[in-house]
């Protein structure tokens, strides 16, 4: 049964449907693997044994009576430690919330449970989700599957590690500036960033409500599509017949291909060639106004984040990782008038972006311009930390600023992801494009 641990969620679901896999045995296999894993506490904050087995038993009864709720009914998954879960400590990676126990599940967790998901537990994360690196000296830093001496990417660090280390079939994370896509890229997974406002964040510990989104980290595009549907309580889209022939992509040059790590640059060039060979048209694209949008990042993200958390932070700043504390406090340097003007200008820039990318089936870039940074150096070299954190999230942040859906796919080269930007609320089209690209890169 150990081979179940690295199977795609869709295939586990098919095994349950055919009677070859028992949801209870599958859940027990995952729980035993988690409990035995030497890095368990670096990946999971808490393992919900009783809940998982109760949900698995219910899934098994549905399977036997022919009443399954979704293809992944009975498949065990993990949840980032900012999704409220009733009776289970939820601290969002910070001692500011130490001992916090919600009395009900986040809405998205309730919906997913009604679709038959099995909750294995909660996963580690960057403090209050305000870093793309995955480093958390306050709680725990999960491992990177490709480099024991590097960070795993964040802030959904444990979500990515839970899947990469075969301790969950899917990890549910959040993405405010790249927090699903960076750990997906650095751990060779698929990561889906949904459009802000599409999936409920009710009961999700916030960072920036205007940008916060919910999304899955999985082993395939099909799995990502299945979990998007599960998180919304509906049927998944049909990915059959996806093909690159005749599709037209923009290869984004502005911002996204500046200061690339040589390995990342080489892999991206190779990916463009492989997509061309599979029948896609690739067009280099410059969007000069994107540079201005990126310049609004500090104003928009830090002002809202500090506005939401200033009372808790200033009541106990010594409880925080200093790097995260410093980043939050940037927000108090901006005025409310500047924040309002910044959002007004961003909406103009979003319209400019939409005009520039009209006619393309997707916009491409490296997911991250750098490879996973060194863990020890991040803790001892402030300048290195700041530069690495900003670079890690630079390319992914484009989608958040422009109000887009986005997908990160593994390329076959360790910790190098290919990012596809879709349109706002365009996840269905994006996933079909992603499925075609996944096939071409396989």
Automatic annotation (TrEMBL):
**Amidase domain mapped to chain residues:** 26-431
S-adenosyl-L-methionine as a keyword? Answer: no
Q: Please report the organism this UniProt entry assigns to the protein.
A: Epibacterium ulvae
PANTHER family, sorted: AMIDASE AMID-RELATED (PTHR11895:SF176), TRANSAMIDASE (PTHR11895)
In terms of Pfam families, this protein maps to: Amidase
Q: Which UniProt keywords apply?
A: Transferase
Q: What name is this protein filed under?
A: Aspartyl-tRNA(Asn)/glutamyl-tRNA(Gln) amidotransferase subunit A
User: Matching InterPro entries, A to Z?
Assistant: Amidase (IPR000120), Amidase_CS (IPR020556), Amidase_dom (IPR023631), AS_sf (IPR036928)
Q: Which SUPFAM superfamilies match?
A: Amidase signature (AS) enzymes
What would you give as a GO molecular function for this chain, any one?
transferase activity
Q: What is the lineage of its organism?
A: Bacteria, Pseudomonadati, Pseudomonadota, Alphaproteobacteria, Rhodobacterales
């Amino acid at each position: 049964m150990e081979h179940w641990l690295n199977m795609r969620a869709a295939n586990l679901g098919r095994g349950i449907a055919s009677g070859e896999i028992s949801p209870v045995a599958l859940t027990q296999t995952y729980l035993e693997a988690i409990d035995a894993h030497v890095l368990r506490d670096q990946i999971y904050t808490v393992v919900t044994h009783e809940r998982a087995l109760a949900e698995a038993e219910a899934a098994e009864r549905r399977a036997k009576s022919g009443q399954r709720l979704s293809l992944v009914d009975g498949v065990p998954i993990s949840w980032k430690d900012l999704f409220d879960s009733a009776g289970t400590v939820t601290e969002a990676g910070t001692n500011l919330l130490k001992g916090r126990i919600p009395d009900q599940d986040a809405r998205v967790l309730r919906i997913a449970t009604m679709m038959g998901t099995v909750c294995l537990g909660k996963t580690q994360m960057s403090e209050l989700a305000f870093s793309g690196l995955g480093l958390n000296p306050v709680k725990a830093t999960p491992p990177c599957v490709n480099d024991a001496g590097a960070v795993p990417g964040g802030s959904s660090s444990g979500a990515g590690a839970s899947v990469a280390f075969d301790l969950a079939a899917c990890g549910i994370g959040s993405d405010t500036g790249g927090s699903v896509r960076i750990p997906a890229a650095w751990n060779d997974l698929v990561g889906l960033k949904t459009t802000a406002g599409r999936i409920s964040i009710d009961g999700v510990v916030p960072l920036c409500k205007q940008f916060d989104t919910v999304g899955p980290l999985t082993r395939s595009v099909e799995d990502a599509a299945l979990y998007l549907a599960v998180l919304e309580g509906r049927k998944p889209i049909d990915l059959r017949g996806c093909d690159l022939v005749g599709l037209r992509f923009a290869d984004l040059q502005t911002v996204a291909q500046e200061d690339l790590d040589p390995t990342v640059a080489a892999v991206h060039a190779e990916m463009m060639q492989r997509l061309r060979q599979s029948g896609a048209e690739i067009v280099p694209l410059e969007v000069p106004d994107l540079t201005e949008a990126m310049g609004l990042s500090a104003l928009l993200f830090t002002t809202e984040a500090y506005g939401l958390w200033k009372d808790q932070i200033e009541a106990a700043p010594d409880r925080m990782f200093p790097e995260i504390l410093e980043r939050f406090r940037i927000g108090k340097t901006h005025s409310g008038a500047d924040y309002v003007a910044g959002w007004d200008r961003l909406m103009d820039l979003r319209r400019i972006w939409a005009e520039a990318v009209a006619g393309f089936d997707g916009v491409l870039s490296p997911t991250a311009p750098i490879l996973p940074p060194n863990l020890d150096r991040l803790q001892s070299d402030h300048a290195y930390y700041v530069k690495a954190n900003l670079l890690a999230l630079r390319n992914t942040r484009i989608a958040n600023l422009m109000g887009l859906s986005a997908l990160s796919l593994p390329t076959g080269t360790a910790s190098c992801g290919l990012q596809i930007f879709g349109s706002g609320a365009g996840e269905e089209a994006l996933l079909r494009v992603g499925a075609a690209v996944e096939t071409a890169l396989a």
